[in-house]
Design brief:
It is a single chain. The protein is globular and about 55 Å long. It has about 270 residues and is α/β, with parallel strands linked by helices. The protein contains 10 helices and 11 strands. The strands form 3 sheets. A 7-stranded parallel sheet has the order 3-4-5-8-9-10-11, covered by helices on one side. Strands 1-2 form a two-stranded antiparallel sheet. The chain has a two-stranded antiparallel ribbon with strand order 6-7.
Length: about 270
């Protein structure tokens, strides 16, 4: 397994599991085969992926329930991160709701579904343009002071928003889109590096175009690996604070993704992908 990363006072292996895909199609409703979803979740942990990322909007609510069904009582080294702040009124809709009263209810709901007394890492899923950002972060800080949240994280934020949030409470992680195709959060990654904050790149494999590039295909052949493994290995080599969280509902793909933790890209490989 590719080393470890700190999330506050917690240490996890530096390749995690994004649990979103075990829900129904388009992250809506329950999976077609609940037992198969449970098997994927258990296998992910067995493969050394001891950081799981979920959210109350996945399903909605289904994903957190599946994790509890599959793994509760939880292994001592399993860290579960969840998120609140997005509503799913219908399939395909992801509507921000950063009102403190909503976030406080969301925290309680996640605690109940995950069967936890305290959430290891609770992340604001996205800033709500209709709500002052400080009010949303303040609701998470309140949850932390109440003992319901161990650590606070952010998702889909700018450097300025990260700085603003850090004036309210300690921030231990940021989850933004980042991959070989989309490096628009490079400045946020650099800010996380300076502060020792874990960076969770969502959509770590991108839309797939990068996996078909000549450089990725060449490296995959050279390393006897899959293109997706090269993309994940690139993330791991990119920064010591990087914690990729690829997700899948397929056992074969899960095993392939986990194999990226054992790939080492050389400086020359990295230049080839730059």
């Amino acid at each position: 397994m590719a080393s470890t990363v700190r999330i506050g006072d917690l240490t996890v292996n530096r390749l995690g599991f994004g649990a979103m895909r075990v829900c129904g199609p388009n992250v809506w409703g329950p999976p077609r085969n609940r037992a198969a979803a449970h098997a994927v979740l258990r296998k992910a942990y067995d493969l050394g992926l001891n950081f799981f990322d979920t959210a109350d909007s996945y399903g909605p609510r289904v994903d957190e329930e599946l994790i509890a069904e599959a793994l509760h009582p939880y292994p001592k080294d399993l860290v579960i991160a969840t998120k609140g702040g997005l509503l799913r009124p219908r399939p395909g809709a992801w509507d921000p709701d950063g009102r403190p009263e909503h976030l406080k209810r969301a925290i309680d709901g996640s605690l109940e579904r995950l069967k936890l007394e305290r959430i290891d890492l609770y992340q604001l899923h996205a800033p709500d343009p209709k709500v002052p950002f400080a009010d949303s972060v303040g609701a998470l800080a309140d949850g932390q002071r109440a003992g319901k949240i161990r650590h606070v994280g952010l998702s889909n934020v700018s450097v300025k928003q990260l700085e603003d949030a850090r004036r309210i409470c300690a921030i231990v992680s940021v989850q933004n889109e980042y991959n070989l195709e989309n490096r628009s959060s490079e400045d946020v990654l650099e800010a996380c590096e300076r502060q020792g904050i874990a960076f969770l790149p969502w959509f770590p494999l991108g839309a797939g175009a990068a996996l078909k590039s000549r450089a990725v295909k060449s490296l995959a052949k050279r390393h006897r690996a899959r293109p997706a493994q090269i993309a994940l290995a690139w993330l791991l080599a990119k920064s010591a604070v990087m914690l990729p969280i690829p997700g899948t509902a397929d056992l074969k793909h899960l095993e392939e993704n986990a194999g990226a933790a054992h790939l080492t890209l050389s400086p020359a490989d990295m230049r080839e992908l730059s």
